Fold these 4 entries.
Entry 1:
Amino acid sequence: MKKIVFLMFALFMTVTANAQFEADKVYVGASLSGIDLHYNGNDKLNLGVDGMVGYLPMDNLMLLGSASFKHNGDDVVPDEYKIGAGGRYYITQNGLYLGANAKFVHASHDYNDIMPGVEIGYAFFVNRTVTIEPAVYYDQSFKRSKYSTVGLKIGIGLYLFGK
């Protein structure tokens, strides 16, 4: 009986995820990043909030725009603002994706940087439009290596409209 229930659940998840990454969908997402889950040579306590808007021009390919704010617990390190663009490619219809992006970072009066980044994540569908999206990311700073960051973020996404 357990095997039948598991098989039905797996089939249901495959069918519902199959139509999620289709062309002409709009994506809206938000995530928390760096809740002391990332490391770089400069920070201490961190709380980051990211907002994203995306569009799927073709199946499995999403173009993204993003904005984020990060507060550092250290008084010496200023708060950080980022704006960026990127994309995701959904490898399989079950939600596994690869992402690439570039962000303009403003951290203080004397520090601005452009940071390319990569991520790998998973879009777990709670229902037909809402996802929980854990991801591992890496952002590379070419200006100051101590600002290069590897971390974990957890987000919520909405996949709207579509065919």
Note: Residues 2-18 have pLDDT under 50 and may be disordered.
Entry 2:
Amino acid sequence: MEVLEFLLDDEQILTTVTLVILIMLLIGNVVADKLKKYEDIDVDAAVTLMDEKDLIILDVREKKERSAGYIANDIHIPISQVKSKLNTLDNKKKVLVYCHSGSRAAHIAGLLTRNEFEHVYNLKGGMNAWKKANQPIKS
């Protein structure tokens, strides 16, 4: 009871509101992570996945970013065009999505799963992680 009185005290109300917001954000992140239908994978898992013949490697970076290199045998569709070109991709195949750091790819991975793609993977860390792991880069 004393804790409740403390938290609702006029001098502590800002702290209480901040605490409630932080708890809600934490719960939201946990729930969102459980509901996402794609898998974040590291470079080693991506390399293993690339051994499969029915894999689409999708680069969603902008055209100018590709000049710094790309992963062999990928398909390049800039993030702004992915939605309009979904019908060019086979939703029965596994899809590995990558970008520069992984955040744009995660967005597109979510888009793909919402559009009936069943096996979608996001390269965690994107090309940054790929380069750091000394994986081959095409130019």
Note: Helices lie at 2-8, 13-35, 43-49, 63-66, 79-82, 103-114, 126-132.
Entry 3:
Amino acid sequence: MATTISTIASLIVIGISSNQTAIATTLYHITDIGTLSGTSSTAVDINDLGQVVGTSDTTSGDLGYVPGAFLWENGIIRNLGFSRANSINNSGQVVGLLERENSGLGRAVLWQNGALKDIGALYPNGESFATDINDTGQIIGSSESDGSCLLKVDSSGNVISNSIPFPIRNTLFQSINNSSQIAGAISREEFNAFLAENGVLTELEPLPNDTSSLAQNINNFGQIVGYSYSTSGPTFDPKAVVWKNGKITQLETSNSYLSIAQDISDSGQIVGYNFAANNIYGNTSALLWVNSKVLNLNSLVAPNSDKFDVLTKANGINNVGQIVGTGLINGQERAFLATPIFVDEPASILGLLTVGTLGVSSAFRCKLKQR
């Protein structure tokens, strides 16, 4: 906690002029996105218009609480009519999964303008899921265990092509940018991150002492984030990383904390979360990396924000700097939206810093649960 506060203090000092009349920093107003009709929710993606998608418990169906994909916009949350939302583009198209009988398996779907379309699968009546959609309408996902799919949809949401550009078994397509570059992982004996472009798949090396890696997201400049880890140890030990031009760099964390990077904006801001070593099912904290420096979002909460016990995971960031993820309210997981607020008044900064410090102290006293 002391390290985090020190980092914030340093950030503030940078903005002080010689006559101490100007201070500038960024805090975040936290909004509780809420739930559909259940008790918990998580936000996974946000587009540049501030539209948020994720999954919430619902109370519909004979089985009680079942997952439901949601779209949140301007304070209103709506049920999209399928199970899990994974991605939204700047046209408001949403892709995800429609489960079959709450089995966790099902079909990849596209939601657009209130209509839901079954994207299909590689084989008749097969299983599939969609992981991402870019602004040109390209969708990536997987079908069965025989490979990953690249599909293109027209302006009406109709699939106009269906192909397997890399027919390699056990590939996982995670993210596609507007230049059709794809980031993901290939599994042989172990997972290894890759970049795919122009029909060529290039594997990305993990950190020197690790054996495996997984790419989570790619921005429009081809920068990829994810994590590197070793399968030779007794526990899972991920370290957040970024690949730029094929070169891997480990992201800064505090003390012995392990971490995962989830998303990267076009300006290079990265979000994710960390957790204590050997405690991956214990305390987690939402993180933001700016210019290679790590910040705990719990230390940057602006006054008058919706009250969370703690912000546990940051899952997505848009090009406006808004962040979405998961926190805890009264012990229940809830989706949040963090909107940046730029403050340049000395008195305001000092007051806000005090609030942020108290928030961190409170957060570290909470007993958290890993999703």
Note: Confidence is low (pLDDT under 50) at residues 1-23, 347-371.
Entry 4:
Amino acid sequence: MSSLAEKGLKISKNAFFNFIISRASGIMKKPVKVGLLLTTAYEKLKDANSNESGFDQLKDIMYRLIRLVKAYYNGTYREVNTKSMLLGVAVLLYIVTPLDLVPDFIPIIGFADDISLMAWFISAFQEELQKFQVWEEGSVAVGHS
């Protein structure tokens, strides 16, 4: 996955992704738009088919990111770095944006840049995602007591 993460790192440094980050910053101020973004990202991930090894694992982690953003916005989880939240929202926005570096309608290759960016985000912000997973598992356990 490191080569995917390296490709994702390159994507994260290009001008288009910087534009996406600025859009994400604006969206983060509007909870309704964040909700729409989460729903759209979830549906796109759910519908994505790929023969890439490990893609299901990437999808599961990205679903966790969606849950993290949702928990942040509903106020139940706030133990996340603001920069991590901004980049997470930007990655989700990039995934749902129909015009990215390689259009998604091109089979397999079109989703490759999305996968690379997801891999980069997961590797760069693994600690934040793991902290949330521990919190999430703890809240489920407490909720069932």
Note: Helices lie at 2-12, 15-27, 31-47, 55-73, 82-96, 109-124, 126-143.
